[in-house]
Amino acid sequence: RTTMKSLRFISAEAFVSNAEFARKSLGAVAHDLFPLLFKASYLLEQGEVIHDLVENWPLFDFNMGKLLGATLDYQEDLSHRTCSVCLESCLTGLRDYVLNQSSPYMKKLKVFDLTGIKDVEVQFCKCKKTMGRWARTQLLSKLCSELLVYLQQAQCNPGTFEISINVLIDLFVTERNYELVVQALLKKCSCPLKICCVAFRSDNLTLQKFFYIIKLTDPSLLRKLEIVHNVHLEMEHLEILFSSIHFPLLMSLTLPARTFNVRRFTATDEQMLSNIGEKMGEMTQLTELSMSFSILTGRIQKLLSPLKTPLKMLDVSNCSLNHADMAYLANSFHANHLEALDLSGHDIPELYPSTFFKLLSHCSSVLRNLTLEDCNIQDTHVNMLILGLSPCQKLQEFKFIGNPLTSQALKHLFTFLCELPMLKNVEFPVPRDCYPIGITYPIDDASLCRYDHQKYERVAEELNLILLQANREDVKASTPLFGSYDAAVQETNNELGAYLIKSFKETLEKFTTSFNKMS
Asked: Is Repeat there in the keyword field (predicted)?
């Protein structure tokens, strides 16, 4: 698929394709052409030209999302290209913007916004080397620290110290880059580049370090907070977090697995849960909430009813919800606004079929993403599911891996899915008839890959043929057995793997010590 380019864009490409000539000629370029030249340079991966464009940026703001997004001159959106060459050139260009004392342009830049970059699985850049969110956090922090050291040592123009640029970024902090980021945040006041954290993700971090760094980020600006995987945050810590820090602009909150466990609740815990609900109620911008793998049986209402703004995204996968929880969700004011819903890990047909379909009907006019993995949806439930999904005409993504459906039922379902006009992505299970007879669901990890691969390929081809015959080549259908792509996990999997091995070793040592004492 080729995207039309205007004559202006073609001329810009020709100009930047000769890097040496372009760099020499920048002084004679009109200010309003810089955005055009930047996108052309990014498309052609002209790192040196990108660096010089940023170093001499003549405008008040630099917004990566807008610069790379669809424009009249070139409709293609390049914001999902996290090309390492381009992004490193961008950030070093920003550092040199501060240091460059001979720039022909008056220094006007006030805001440098990196938040519009999207991390995706498939990269189209020629270098094939990406710079993910963690690496961007690392590089910006490093450049800020280096810049300060240089300014303190060198004889700089006094005007350099008057430069103040807010650098908007989505930070991603783990144990490995923690110290570097802390140093950059601590010295924010004296550095011309001011890190402004709009979204914060922490993984593989001790609670003490998490609490320290979250205060340094200026939580009053935070719109998205993700505390995931190896941050051992439990309910009492969450209450302390919400009591000691205010998040007035927070729109999206992700909590780690096992934050809540109502099975061991005391009267004090019930009060704590109410306090957390009230504190979330004070976050008037909060519209996205993810609490997967917590045990929340019978407590959804207590947690969500204080919210004053309806949720647009709710992930309560594997949260052991009961009928009362589902009834609350179906009848709550959130139901009519849910654009993304994840109820994976609940036996929907057995526990609350009618209540679930009531919830589905309430959110059908706005629902875009629906995830029902490991929900015990069988062949006998497919007609009912089709009936429930029929009004969901805005549905773009449907994931239902791990359900015991046969290839025949999947074909029936796919024939219906072709009728959903906005659908773009489907994640479907390996058909039940591809597994050995007697397989039990949910399938354990050891048995997950023990299916007839040839038969699966044949069925997958037939399902794609159904899409093809309905002129729905725009729909991507796949079976990611071990979960969907997660850019953040992908980028830091070596560190997380090492952490898990270390944790396992420590647990084993403790067990051995205890066993020896008993002996």
From this structure: yes
